[in-house]
């Protein structure tokens, strides 16, 4: 189901980083996110609510200026 807040997201299992691209165009990397949490996010109907409850303000993050930058 599409989210009104999150455009897309990707999980880097090697580095445990969850990249979220918001509808606004902002791109954030969330560090040390357990893969199990990512798997739960994939299953949930409301990505935005899940993000607000389980990810936002719970993990260190950095804003990316280039969504294709993997550094």
- The proportion of strand residues reads 25-35%
Assign an overall shape: globular
Please give the domain count: 1
> Radius of gyration, rounded?
11 Å
Number of strands: 4
Q: What is the average of the pLDDT values? A: 91
Number of helix segments?
Answer: 2
Unreliable stretches, pLDDT < 50, 5 or more residues? none
Helix content: 10-25%
How many strands, which pairing sense, and closed or not: the largest β-sheet?
4 strands, antiparallel
Q: How do the strands of the widest beta sheet line up side by side?
A: 1-2-3-4
CA-CA gap between termini: 30 Å
Indicate the structural class.
alpha+beta
Order of helices and strands: EEEHHE
Structural commentary:
The protein is an alpha+beta fold and 71 residues long. The chain has one domain (6-64). It is built from two helices and four strands, in the order βββααβ. It has helices spanning 35-43, 47-54, and strands spanning 6-12, 17-22, 27-30, 61-64. A four-stranded antiparallel sheet has the order 1-2-3-4, with no helix packed on it. Strand 1 (6-12) and strand 2 (17-22) form a beta hairpin. The protein is globular and about 30 Å long. The mean pLDDT is 91. Residues 3-59 form the KTSC domain. InterPro entries: KTSC_dom (IPR025309). This is KTSC domain-containing protein.
């Amino acid at each position: 189901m599409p989210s009104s807040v999150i455009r897309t997201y990707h999980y880097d299992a090697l580095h445990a980083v969850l990249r979220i691209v918001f509808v606004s165009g902002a791109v954030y990397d969330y560090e040390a996110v357990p893969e199990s949490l990512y798997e739960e996010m994939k299953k949930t109907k409301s990505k935005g609510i899940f993000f607000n409850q389980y990810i936002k303000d719970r993990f260190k993050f950095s804003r990316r200026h280039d969504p294709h930058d993997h550094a």
